[in-house]
């Protein structure tokens, strides 16, 4: 027997898709803006780094030829460390901008992706939020095994960032003293399982599946759209995997999400 949807159900479905399209268009606009900002910031940053590196080389030459002990002390204790720290800071900004560029880059290509590179980019992008919420992020992954999956790099970054940000939001009004997010990867047959666990508030049994539905959220409108985990599930299933709530947590437990992805077994030359 074929069940026909009621007009109310059709309207609700249409409204949901319309909201998804609006959200997707907003993300695309943000991506374009971020790309422009990254380009504009990179230009002066290149000059700043070049000038600092030139100044550092010059100071080293001055230090080699200087016989005045007081000037040498000033150069060694004040000038040289300042220049070195400034250059390190510029490189850190460049790393952050490159991670932003990869996250918002508008591309639909699929390739072999090293999960280590994805984790590092997302770690950089979420570093400020982690510090702000005083959350320690630990990563435990196999040191030698290739961690390659086949998919879209931008989408995979978004999926991991969504899960981590979801955990960070849960910590916002949480009284846990030592806040932790633990990321682990293990191989199970032909699949790679990436588990992201946190010691934040437990998730009630009745919400175990609802949290993956579009627009479902326990946050206020300013904090959440209800699309984060729904998008993650869509991305994971598009890769031939899935995301499940592995553990709901408790007084001493961890809330854990397990993302499964088929391991890639192609040529190493195609690694993205």
What is the tally of beta strands? Answer: 7
Number of domains: 2
| Main β-sheet description | 5 strands, mixed
Question: Structural class, from secondary structure content?
Answer: alpha+beta
Describe this structure in words.
The protein is α+β, with helices and mostly antiparallel strands and 272 residues long. The protein has 2 domains: 9-104; 111-270, Histidine kinase-like ATPase, C-terminal domain (Heat Shock Protein 90, 2-Layer Sandwich). The protein has helices spanning 7-65, 69-104, 115-125, 127-132, 153-171, 228-238, and strands at 111-114, 135-140, 148-151, 179-188, 191-198, 242-248, 255-262. A 5-stranded mixed beta sheet has the order 2-4-5-7-6. A two-stranded antiparallel sheet has the order 1-3. The longest helix is centred in the N-terminal third of the chain and has 59 residues, at 7-65. Mean pLDDT is 77; it is low at 268-272.
Overview features:
single chain, 272 residues, alpha+beta, Heat Shock Protein 90, 2 domains, five-stranded mixed sheet, two-stranded antiparallel ribbon, elongated, disordered C terminus
Structure described in brief:
Helices cover 52% and strands 17% of the residues.
Question: Secondary structure elements and their pairing?
Answer:
Blueprint (H helix, E strand, L loop, with lengths): L6 H59 L3 H36 L6 E4 H11 L1 H6 L2 E6 L7 E4 L1 H19 L7 E10 L2 E8 L29 H11 L3 E7 L6 E8 L10
Parallel strand pairs: 2-4
Antiparallel strand pairs: 1-3, 4-5, 5-7, 6-7
